Fold:
Amino acid sequence: MKVALVTGSAKRVGRDIALSLAKKGYNILLHYNTSKQEAKSTKKEIENYGVICHLIKIDLNKKNAEKKIIKKAYSLFDKIDIIINNASIYSKDSPENFETDTAMEQLKVNLIAPIKIMELYSKKQNSGLIINLLDKKCKEISTDFFSYSISKNILEQTTLIYSAALKNKIRVNGIAPQFVIAPKIDKKNPDLSKEYKKLSGTKPILNKIDEIINSDITGEIYSL
Structure:
């Protein structure tokens, strides 16, 4: 059976990704940090599909967290077919209200952790697939969530760099959804609100992951 490691998969988007892969027969390495009860609940749901699910509790803000994840993962399985870097944190800040500690926390989890995981994975295997979860909204020029936007924008470029560096070895792609929760209905523009609703939720993300898995594509950033 195939194996998938999904970071930040106890709840929300990561949970849906893990469950979707479990339905397709993947054993799941479910990484989480503080969401213990949600992780246990998701684990039970995953195991209902007749696959194995192991929980990996690690704080990505800690030193050597990525090494610990990879070490634990390979102690449980000989090979990992897919790694999905989904874990992220965000705090509201701006260019005028910039706090170094807050920024560094977000950069560590959202950028450094997936980079290090990609590096370590590439040293373990000669084939495989990495999908990085990005954020289409970060491409907009906005002063909100300044550090978060920086981390996701740089991760997008890093995704392309790694796809070139690991060409003919490990495929690397990115998915940038615009939003998972649809904006509130705009009474002045109901048609636009309906269009937003179509794009919201995790289904577009799950469909794109399936498309990437069932292809030879690498080096692509998909904006949803």
